[in-house]
Amino acid sequence: MYSLGEWKNSGEFFDHEGFPIFYRQSGDKNTQVLLCLHGFPTASFDYHKIWDELAAHFRVFAADMMGYGFSAKPYEFDYTTFAQADLIEAFLRHVKADRIHILSHDYGNTITQELLARRVEGKLGFEIESICFLNGALFPETHRPILAQKLLIGPLGKYFGRFIPDSRFAAGLASVFGPDTQPTAGELNDFLTLFKHNDGKLIAHKLIRYMTERQKFRERWVKPLQHLTQPFLFINGSADPVSGKHLVDRFREVVPTQKNVVEVPGIGHFPHLECPDEVLGHFLRFQGVQIG
User: Fold this and answer.
1) For 223-277, what is each residue's pLDDT tens digit?
2) Angstrom distance (rounded) from CA 126 to CA 99
3) How far apart are CA 249 and CA 238, in angstroms?
4) In the chain, how many domains are there?
5) Displacement of CA 97 from its chain's centroid (Å)
6) Is the preceding peptide bond at 20 cis, omega within 30 degrees of 0?
7) Which CATH number does the domain housing residue 39 bear?
8) Whole-number pLDDT of residue 125
9) Cα–Cα distance, 165 to 162 (Å, whole number)
10) Which end of the chain is more exposed for a tag (fewer CB within 10 A), N or C?
11) 109-140 burial string, b = 16+ CB within 10 Å, else e?
């Protein structure tokens, strides 16, 4: 595990269209590449509890997407899923990774869906060798946003994001964790620090637009899941009110060919933070890694 300060100090930045993008990398350069994608409204730091163990088996990368964490948060930027997928492609070119495994969470799942759509079109500049999803809405009809998300996407979202009290932000995040795996005060403070860094509160209403994109581009992003050829694993915290058991039930209806689904009772939206050892076990077994 890392403190937030340690995570930042051991990271790097690369330039994307004139903006600094924060990222972390660890592991042997001769091993397979694992890309970890974070969700809204957090950052790559979400993976800090499982990072070192992942790096013992992979060359691991994670970047804070534009508008998140320690990366640039320009007000005048088009925060679309397509722009974030462009950033990921640019990042992988920067680190010279042309074959990757993906471990994604929340909004990172949507970005992975867009990458898969580009692969179907023959436009993806790298190969995806396997995919593991953690909790995150895959279908607009199953997404159950919390109140803060509804307010951000609404007509007053610009003002809500700017003036949201720290306590409201913390309470909103805590509400999606499992009842017995609640974040500590220190963890909530880390979430808040990342959210507010570089005036992040000013653009929160722009980041949340992915919720409407999921409706508009549902067919584009769902169809590739129904025709996956890569090895696939879905680890889902069942107690997540946003994308928990109800999402798994719908996933089995929409993508019946994918059987490799692990449901974790009592765990909420952040399995890699709430039950990191269990997530590691499932993921490493999926990758064929022998564990004790």
Assistant:
1) 999 999 999 999 999 999 999 999 999 999 999 999 999 999 999 999 999 999 9
2) 6
3) 10
4) 1
5) 19
6) no
7) 3.40.50.1820
8) 94
9) 9
10) C
11) bbbbbbbbbbbeeeebebebebbbbbbbbbbb
